[in-house]
UniProtKB/TrEMBL annotation:
One of its GO terms (biological process) is L-leucine biosynthetic process. Homodimer. InterPro entries: 2-isopropylmalate_synth_dimer, AIPM/Hcit_synth_CS, Aldolase_TIM, IPM_Synthase, LeuA-like_post-cat, LeuA_allosteric_dom_sf, LeuA_N_DRE-TIM, PYR_CT. Its main location: cytoplasm. SMART domains: LeuA_dimer. Its EC number is 2.3.3.13. Mg(2+) binds at D42, H246, H248, N282. This is 2-isopropylmalate synthase. It is found in: Cytoplasm. Pfam families: HMGL-like (PF00682), IPMS_D2 (PF22615), LeuA_dimer (PF08502). GO terms for molecular function: 2-isopropylmalate synthase activity; acetyl-CoA C-acetyltransferase activity; magnesium ion binding.
Amino acid sequence: MSMKQATANKYRPFPVVDISDRTWPSKTITKAPIWSSSDLRDGNQSLIEPMDAEKKMKFFKTLVDIGLKEIEVAFPSASQTDFDFVRHLIEENHIPDDVSIQVLTQAREDLIRRTFESLRGVKKAIVHFYVAVSPSFRNIVFKQDKAAMIATAVKSAKLFAELAAEQPETDWTFEFSPETFSMAELPFSVEICNAVLDVWKPTPQKKAILNLPATVECSTPNVYADQIEWFGRHVNHRDSVIISLHCHNDRGTGIAATELGLLAGADRVEGCLFGNGERTGNVDLVTLALNMYTQGVDPKLDFSDIDSVRHVVEECNQLSVHPRHPYVGDLVHTAFSGSHQDAIRKGFALQKDKEYWEVPYLPIDPSDIGRSYDAVIRVNSQSGKGGITYLLEQDYGISLPRRMQIEFSQIVQKETDRLGLEMTSKQIYDLLDREYLQIKEPVQLIKHRLQEENGESTVRLEVNVGGKTEHWHGVGKGALEAAVSAIPTNVEIMDYNEHAIGVGSTANAAAYIEIRMDGGRSLHGIGIHENITMASFQALFSALNRAMQLANKKVF
Ligand SMILES: CC(=O)SCCNC(=O)CCNC(=O)[C@H](O)C(C)(C)COP(=O)(O)OP(=O)(O)OC[C@H]1O[C@@H](n2cnc3c(N)ncnc32)[C@H](O)[C@@H]1OP(=O)(O)O
Ligand SMILES: CC(C)C(=O)C(=O)O
Ligand SMILES: [Mg+2]
């Protein structure tokens, strides 16, 4: 069957929600939600090799350092490793007072008892159970009708209340997930959640968490937002309930669904760092938080050293973060292409006078997340003069005049095409050095003597022309004009620029000259020297040699 036939016969569109007076489209996110990391549970259960105790502890500490206050640490009834990890956290006092650990269980008595057992002695904890509610799970996985599913949920909710009462020293929060919420009939999701709430009797002071997962993402994000808004309007005791989002990323829209879900009234978000998790992953907490940050909303999570966080996550998950991953990928603050580099360079130049961050193509200041500007502009065959100029300015203090930027970028372009590779800033400088600063053929300036009298300069140049020493002599209004007049061929100066490189006693002068020889094509030369006159003479001879090589002119 072709894909075309399969589309028509095999798949159905997801039904829309009947909520024409939805309010979320005109809202904005103005504050951070309650965050809960599920890295050590949902993330962990999806790894090729689940984390051992040491990795879990390392990850846990990182989550605490970032500022997570709710951390789902385990599925304690799943394995001895998970059970022991919870015990270790509690017994070795690793849980800060302002952090709640969270654990998950199925709605099965033995598993729930074991889960509470793992939490003995904890100061505060979120205990979380789930029952899948969508038709396919009722029909395929559980083979139970709605009433039986509700009965299972209610029975577990009661056992939660009972077991919690046996450990009154703990500050308990209860959480229920109607798993596969996003694929279920909304009235049934509300019904089962209300039944659980009837048991737990939450209050505005002691809220229960209802976590509404897109266990498998199966619709466009606006549908999920409608589902959240609809649910919030119909669930009982709304003021005593924390509505939590738990999006997976099967369609690649987990971030969008979560953001729209927050607009639709949710209070809390569960997810994993850099989007690890089942299949295509859980929603990425880092991207969500930094999306808020770049809108001027304090996300209450700290990613000011994002690379250290990534390092821990990669090590613990044994999975690498993609180079294009939002905010953190190796290439996401990098521009190779010419027009992007040009805009970024101009943006950086003006940024210091601005109140708000406004550098084109960079939605975040890389330094806010601990990145340097080093990688922002990188040069390959797609790059133009802007990027090359930026690197020479930043790394070598060399500010090429505009027409010289054009000339040199063509030389770089040829080289990147030849190499088929990226060129580092050092390689670009070396190319400039080879093409302009070290060019000594066919004419090499050996030494000069300059005399200034009555506003007139006289220059005597000792040069090596094709292996023979010659002496040239010229007069002009300034040193450069005198040197030009000393050259035994027709040379016109089209443009001249100079600037200092560095400051103080170690400063050098850079001189840039554009000349036309014998009415031919204009070409540039550069000189860098501690003495400005010498720099300008070097620039002149650099340009002269380039012009002569181009014209294939060996001697005068
Ligand atoms: C969307 C999610 O991420 S949900 C969380 C998923 N995470 C995990 O499963 C990781 C930890 N899980 C485990 O280690 C194991 O599955 C355990 C220990 C929980 C259970 O192990 P087992 O008893 O061997 O069962 P198994 O792993 O095959 O799970 C399937 C059984 O659980 C039942 N089940 C699935 N979900 C639930 C639930 N929420 N409540 C009650 N029973 C459930 C299934 O109907 C099936 O029962 P059956 O064997 O009677 O048909
Ligand atoms: C257990 C629940 C919350 C879950 O992970 C999911 O539905 O994706
Ligand atoms: Mg999940």
